[in-house]
Amino acid sequence: MTVTDYLTAILVFITAIYSYLTHKMAKASEASVQAMREQSEAMFRPYVTISPYVRPHTTVLYLRIENTGRSAAENLQLSMDRDFFQFGEVTRTDHNLRTKAAFVEPIQNLPPSEKLVFALAQGFLIFGSGADPNRLPQQFKITAQYRFGEKEFTEVNCIDLRPYIGSEGERDPVVEELERLRKVAEKWSNV
After folding, report:
1. With contact defined as beta carbons under 8 Å apart, do 89 and 76 qualify?
2. Neighbour count for residue 16 (Cβ, 10 Å)
3. What torsion, rounded to 10 degrees, do the Cα atoms 60, 61, 67, 73 define?
4. What is the DSSP letter of 97?
5. Would the CA dihedral through 9, 13, 19, 20 be positive or negative?
6. Secondary structure of residue 144 in the 3-state scheme
7. How far is C-alpha 67 from the chain's CA centre?
8. Model confidence over 81-110: pLDDT tens digits?
9. Spatial distance between the Cα atoms of 155 and 146, rounded to a whole number of angstroms
10. Residues 25, 29, 31, 37: what is their CA dihedral angle, to the nearest 10 degrees?
């Protein structure tokens, strides 16, 4: 073998190493671009959140459905796994959340920061000793299915009202003082 043959063999070996490292760098760049694409989507996609809350200065529990993301949730379909009769009212079918339009008909577009709010019932109705779990369940699931661009999302929200047992809503001292003033004014108006 001549010196040229050795140099050619070394050059082929170095070229193979260079090709291998270039291939690895291209794969790493591809993965980096994919990660950036996923981060961008996560930052701008809609997020439909469903949570209960107690309305301030009352004993009424509410259900809030909100798009907390930065884009509209398209073709939103909400569904409940069981009946929930608002305030335990079963004599009227329009009090069943499960049959309300928001849970039966698709919502074409729920914009960012848009909220749907539904009254559930007072705490003493939901948690009282005679509470009927068929009318006012303390636990239920709401499924939200929606689209964003070409992607579809399905999220199951387990709503558990039991942590609210014994809790109190926030009290505003200004509102309490105004309530006292109102009562005094009523007494004076009756005199």
Report:
1. no
2. 10
3. -110
4. G
5. positive
6. strand
7. 7
8. 999 999 998 887 789 999 999 999 999 999
9. 9
10. 180
